[in-house]
Design a protein that fits this description.
homodimer, 696 residues, alpha/beta, Chitobiase, domain 2, TIM Barrel, 3 domains, six-stranded mixed sheet, xylan alpha-1,2-glucuronosidase activity (chains A, B), alpha-glucuronidase activity (chains A, B), Glyco_hydro_67_C (chains A, B), A-glucoronidase_C_sf (chains A, B)
Amino acid sequence: MEHVKQKGVPQNQYTMCWLDYKRCEDEEYLKKVIPFISNIFILDNNYYFRNAALELKEAIKNIFGVEPNIQTTSYLDFHHGTLIGKLGNEVIEKFLEKEEKEQIGNEGFLIKVVATKTQNIILLVAKTESGIIYGTFELINRLRVKSNLSSLYIIENPKAPLRVINHWDNMDGSIERGYAGSSIFFSNNRVKRSLKRVRDYARLLASIGINGVVINNVNVRGKAIWLITPKYLPELSEIAETFRLYGIKLYISINFASPIYIGGLSTADPLDPDVFKWWQETVKTIYSYIPDFGGFLVKADSEFNPGPYVYGRSHADGANMLARTLLPYGGVVIWRAFVYNCLQDWRDTKTDRAKAAYENFKPLDGEFLDNVVLQIKYGPMDFQVREPVSPLFGGMEKTNQMIELQITQEYTGQQIHLCYLGTLWKEILEFDTYCKGKGSYIKRIVDGSLFGWKYCGFAGVSNIGSSINWTGHDLAQANLWTFGKLAWNPDRSVEDIAKEWILLTFGDDKKVVENILWMLLNSHRIYEKYTTPLGLGWMVNPGHHYGPNPEGYEYSKWGTYHRADTKAIGVDRTSKGTGYTLQYHPHWQKIFDDIEKCPENLLLFFHRVPYTYRLKSGKTLIQFMYDSHFEGAEEVDVLIQKWEELRGKIDEDIFNRVSERLKMQKEHAIEWRDVINTYFYRKTGIPDEKGRLIYP
Amino acid sequence: MEHVKQKGVPQNQYTMCWLDYKRCEDEEYLKKVIPFISNIFILDNNYYFRNAALELKEAIKNIFGVEPNIQTTSYLDFHHGTLIGKLGNEVIEKFLEKEEKEQIGNEGFLIKVVATKTQNIILLVAKTESGIIYGTFELINRLRVKSNLSSLYIIENPKAPLRVINHWDNMDGSIERGYAGSSIFFSNNRVKRSLKRVRDYARLLASIGINGVVINNVNVRGKAIWLITPKYLPELSEIAETFRLYGIKLYISINFASPIYIGGLSTADPLDPDVFKWWQETVKTIYSYIPDFGGFLVKADSEFNPGPYVYGRSHADGANMLARTLLPYGGVVIWRAFVYNCLQDWRDTKTDRAKAAYENFKPLDGEFLDNVVLQIKYGPMDFQVREPVSPLFGGMEKTNQMIELQITQEYTGQQIHLCYLGTLWKEILEFDTYCKGKGSYIKRIVDGSLFGWKYCGFAGVSNIGSSINWTGHDLAQANLWTFGKLAWNPDRSVEDIAKEWILLTFGDDKKVVENILWMLLNSHRIYEKYTTPLGLGWMVNPGHHYGPNPEGYEYSKWGTYHRADTKAIGVDRTSKGTGYTLQYHPHWQKIFDDIEKCPENLLLFFHRVPYTYRLKSGKTLIQFMYDSHFEGAEEVDVLIQKWEELRGKIDEDIFNRVSERLKMQKEHAIEWRDVINTYFYRKTGIPDEKGRLIYP
């Protein structure tokens, strides 16, 4: 396995992030561990088991400097080593209690240590090959952080059934909203020939429990429309095979009008029998190439993509038609709820884009087939630095739902700014919708437990590309890591998740852990402060969405307005305004409706507020704006200082790359501070109480 | 000659604009004319004469339905016909007075009619082949408007020596700031094979007296850098040959760093002997393919293009080095003065982009070689709907100057809005700089007469492309026409020029002439009213520059700010402000400095003005803004009505195309009106005195 790296020296032009194994210098631990790891026994001699064993072997070799033997066995003829096997196997089952066996779910695993005078055995048990590979990486990571083997005992099952990465990769190699190089899958309108990097990507994803990858952009245009045809399926099947080894299914984004573009039909009407037949044939062909194909992701009737509305059909009509073709093979349709009027007139104050998803989909609750999942962006707008949680979650009880999070930092600093998203995501997941009474958390909705759904889960828009460190900003790797870990178990604390990432990526130096943890956990808060606090959003440059432009979207067609004048700013979305709050459970409606009770970090999302309005702190809104921007930009210095303290403790390349980005972040934070402050000063004429420099 | 069209029926997918010959229905005129045109005699049997004669023959055939004979002759053996010959030829000179001969300049021509009882002869005489082709088109046009032959007598000489079209065509076929299809020269990084359209373009240009074409974008990147090499010269020489037939020289835009990109040198330092040698060789090669090559157009040290500043050299160093290589062949260097800091910090209120060209070039006056011409945009910024005239004109007495006008409507409606630019250009040309006392008009500077320059003139950024009507908006053809006619003779009135265009393009129906003339002459005034009046400028969407965005450039790096706050708007560019007015002659400095004397249509260019300031009309600034926008958008209805009145009197295709654009113009004028009014209302809180609807 050529992918394993030595001591942080980059091989093959890219790092392996948290799988960049470093040699364990702790001789004592090595001594303790050796008996358990010098042999690897696998009970099934198949491709998947051998692959898992090789992963383990290479890791052990790199971490401990010993090269374990891999042996296939069918009975217990040894006393020392790691035993990998499936539930049901006699050799394994001898070591397990009845309750233990029952606790291991489809994708779960058990790691259990048998340490007696005569036996030093690590058991890795799972029900499926997926569980085996997840367990393998978990075991490797436990060994890397020097877990005490005598007390090592893990039973893990993922909470959510679908844990999917969405790639917005285009076939020309570009990535929509990508900030880390070009696509690792496509270039020049072709599927890339080398699968080496795809395989390493699969390893990274398996190590965080991801089980699905949508390989292409949801905006499906040009050549990408043809991905579902034999023109590209032979190559896609090779990618699928690579992913399969790591428990990951391949999905494809489709163009709803494919029957017209590819099939030569005159319509893509979902109720037209020829259309259905065309899709049926297409799906059959896909499964002939990719027997475990995951399904389709569909952006329909959204931002100039075709959809069922074109034919006067509902989204249920559209999704169900596709779902019927996939059902015999176990495939799903993931249908995006990101449907709104993207040709709004800014003069129209009645239409409120925030209401669109709910208005389009709520009436269809109960109409979708069982293998349709609605993929809903976390907030009602579009991945702003802060939005309220979409009221569609829990608003539809009879419809499978996935939450869509954006790992790539479109509006959150584009991997130039450090902006760890775990803290934001955790807040979202812990939001109690009250839809089924107190405790109806988002995390319980999307993991399926609240309504007993089979298909549901997490979708994350990828932040990786062909750059040396996968994510542009080295610390942005933490966002991918955290997405996977939260999708696996949204109950875990982000502190814990982030800390584990630091330990695996940078080692256990106390200062390193402490400083990077502070940086991660505070970075979103800081970014929010110097950009658009209070739920304001959208003050970015149109198109590329980087950098401040306070009125960049003010007169556009995108439905994203703050309507600031000399007196006030914000849109009244209460029940007396656009009525958006009425889409929430009464518990929240009352809170959001009331300017005094509304969470302050969402104040300007829900209310139109005079600049002289006093916040709970006693500050006026305008003074809060000034303070927030001055303080936020100032706090970037703390990030820089915390990083600077780690000089010499971190791989030099990584240290320098991050330093450079932090320097840019500081510059750009100052730009944000000054533009937004000047904007508000010019708009209001109200000076800063503290007399700091606001450019006139 | 396959290019001649019948009665407005499009052949070959495009119209021929003002050269779209229609049959003359006036039998009486035909009778009078026939003796003069049924024979064409040429005194030089060369390619150029034959081509001119064929142009005339085809025109006569199409206009009068008779097919004249073309005969080469060397003595006068006829009594009826058109005689085409050069000065110096005995046969011709018999008919000419001494003074007449002296009056015909290098590119000029004489048309004279000899009508006696025995002779019916039209004489077309010139000193050069260029004069012959210009005269041919003039004669054709005179016949088309049924000029009285008995009184026909024309001596014409162009005022300015250089009358050049700049194409911002890229080699991929796109056109920077092009709004009429793709390039007629390039596609797919190749020179197009078919020269048919190039030839028709040459005909159009010759008919308006253009004598130079810069074939590629001033931003020279990628493959375009190689246009000066044998990789492309064989094909360019064919284009040059086509142009040559019509008196037009080919020019190429170059990348100043070509010695590095192409030559493999490590520097492009203009004082490096190897660099000079490389350019010398390159120029030699170019002339071996194109013996009458015009020269180079250079955008250096401007908007990310390389230039002499990179090496600590002056623009004179850079231009002169190139000029020396071109001098032996009679070529010129056209050097753009569009040099400014495009990475300005918006917080920096000292730097004023308006001052940049003068600051960069004024100190170099007298340092440029004789075959260097400075190409200066008409205003100090960048082709806004209204700017003051650049103080560089007349500011440099010892430097050849060309004025750069933008025929393509980048900031003036992108050929969706009707915006005839002749009226604006005429105002510019008639501006009296006072640089050499009263009467030092721009037109006298750029035609060379004021300072006795050899090289000087007009550069116009092309508005044509591969669209059916060349210019997208059919009426935008008038801008190309007018550019050529003003470059030929800037003393002519635009009313006269526009009217001639209408007669040749649409015929002499009284209503047609009257209405289109009104539309043209009022269109810039109307566009200015509903967009950015008072010299405001720059309130456009960044990047593509279409449509309103009041703060689109407010925090950018481009140096284009209005700094509007709740009280006032505009930049103080007076001697007490940025000092820009100090670049003008004291006569203008005093006027521009004084808010009461400053021409009102430039008020916000020169002054920072409170919204409550009262204009000469007694209106406040803010009320003027509201009125201007309401009225301007309203007046688009008059344009529509004037056009609608011509239904049935205009070729249906053209009528419909223009109607459609006028409809879009109305919609977009309303957008401008509402966005700008709302912007100012939100900024000031001051309501419209007349209570019209301003969206809050």
